[in-house]
Write the structure tokens for this entry.
Amino acid sequence: MGMFDSLKRGLARSREALSEVFYMGGEVDEDFWEDLEDRLVMGDMGAEVAMQVTDDLREQAAREGLKSARQLRDALARRLAAEFAKAECDPFEDVPSCVLFVGINGAGKTTTVGKLAGVARSEGKSCLIGGADTFRAAAIEQLEVWGQRSGVEVVTRERGADPASVCYDVLDRAEKDGTQLVLIDTAGRLHTSPELMRELEKVVRVTRKRASIPVRVVLVIDATTGQNGLNQAKEFNSALDLDGLIVTKLDGTAKGGIAVAISHDLNLPIYRIGVGEGIDDLQTFDAMDFARALVGEGEGE
Amino acid sequence: MFNSLSDRLQDTFGKLRGKGRLTEDDINTAMREIRMALLEADVNYRVVKKFVAECKEKCMTAEVLESLSPAQNVVRIVLDQLTELLGTTESKLVLAQNRTPNVIMLVGLQGSGKTTAAAKLAFLLKRQGHSPLLAACDVHRPAAADQLETLGNEIGVKVYRGDGKDAVKVARESIQSAVDGLNDIVIVDTAGRLQIDEQMMQEAVDIKNAVKPDQVLMVVDAMTGQDIVNVVSEFANRVDFDGVIMSKLDGDARGGGALSVREVTGKPIKFVSMGEKPDSLEVFHPDRMAKRILGMGDVVSIIEEAQRVTDQKDIDDAERMLREGFTMDDMLTQMQQIRKMGGLKKILASLPGGERALEQAGGAVSDEQITRIEAMIHSMTKQERAKPKTINGQRRKRIAKGSGRSVQEVNQLLKQWSEMEKMMGKMRQLTNGGGNSRKARRQMTNMMRNMGMGGKMPF
């Protein structure tokens, strides 16, 4: 199944929501615009972005003489797709590569690492997992279960150990074995905690310095996150100089609209999106597909 | 970053100054600001619409329009309205009196913080004299039971794991285990589930039917966006929870979701969870949440926190300070009190405008400064602490060396002390001159105003 299909399935409810707007008999009046703005806000895109997008679309409609809801929907999808930053590479395909996963508590970092290791393994890549979350209770055990499932070795230390030193060990090991893909899980932390952010800075610094392969720092963000997501991304970006994003939990009813704002504002590409529980449900991101699914294209036609 | 709503409204109305009275248009402008503030706080769109319409109606009365400070009146109306929506009273845990053990069940999405909340709740109940048992019914996430067990060990609460395969069975057995182990409360931690995952939702219902909990609490991440409405209404339909624990409120999310939850399901927020430590579960206060959503700081919490850490000795000290003057030891005590209250940053962040001030300072206001001051005071002799005026150049040099700071920093500390001493002096005059005189009272008010947030307080 392609990304578009799973996304459509995953985003079913949000699609319904937006499609409703576009199915009101094709009439475009004042209510239509107001409704559209409301829907965008409800997709967590943020009030300001929603207003701007609506205004732009309105202008475009007037300029290009777009009248039917269908035309407008296409225009909106293109407009939204253009907001996403483009990825220059795929850190999980262009090996050798080392990826550090960062994010707030409960965003889905450990699960993402586990799934990606499984995918890499099934593609025949050599892979190594680094467990640098030495803080949360049982984080290491959780990772080890994932490691067993996918047959990937996990390098870690006891709980409470210095996470930067774990990264050092992992890279040491990867170098010796010539591992193609190194995935390092870090402890979840709130962006408002200066001490923990400093610790993470050190982890990233040590990893970048030690590694002989390209290192990418990826922020994992939960699709249900609201406007605070932008704050999170900004803080993590200014501390760690992020390379990209992974948006998880898009299989619920959450629309992940905040991803539009983050990707656009910080010019960060989205590497993967999680649209389900299975290992294969972590998929490559396609801006146009995402935008089309979001505005409800290809439904009822 | 966001400005606080009151600042924004002051700006809006500031532009209208000199107009004599406000018009409907002006109120509309203000309502737009309120709408934006609420949306930025992740309050659900529909809730915002309804809320703003109601506020507008209240604000359109002549009383507000023609008052001398319409901005403040509008803010007050909004705040009152918001507090009312959030529930006017604090909502406590309701446990059946004639049942042992009582059962509390936690549900929620993945990653919302259930396991952590379960441990915190156990700790809270233990502190209240209960003997809780944690039941690890998350059989889906790898190592979830290990996590609960580790947390349980840290706080000294037993964890029942069962076979770790069948969640319903583990839950049922945990009750028996509690009876055998003389535990009076069982906290059932369940797996995270999506509200549209039929199978998992059924599991939650099955667990609920099996253990018949006194309270089902839903754990909701304070950072959740608009989707929270879909999530909670589905959980309310299927599992029917009694209240909500808001997690991750120690971040800078406004937690507007709380408002949506309350409005859409009618369920109260019972606890807020604000950090990694086991003691960071607090009872929910609607008024404070309202202020947080509007970005107005949380003054009451600070005061309460201050009261908690202040004991009788401190009060005696305060009296002595007024009588005999302010010593370096007093300063040290103050620093330590700030520490006890969770550090400078936490206090500043909960003051109105404090978040912005912090940001402007670039986070420079650090607890490291407190540590430095402590080090310097520790390097003073007893006499020096009691009478800092006796500290001459030679002594400053010695103190600097002893604490590893520069002489300039010691000078700065002494300057700070003398400012504070001066302020104490003023207070002393006031108390000696009889607190009843009108002049004294006026001076006191003035001084309070000078001491800080004077013009900034919304009312």
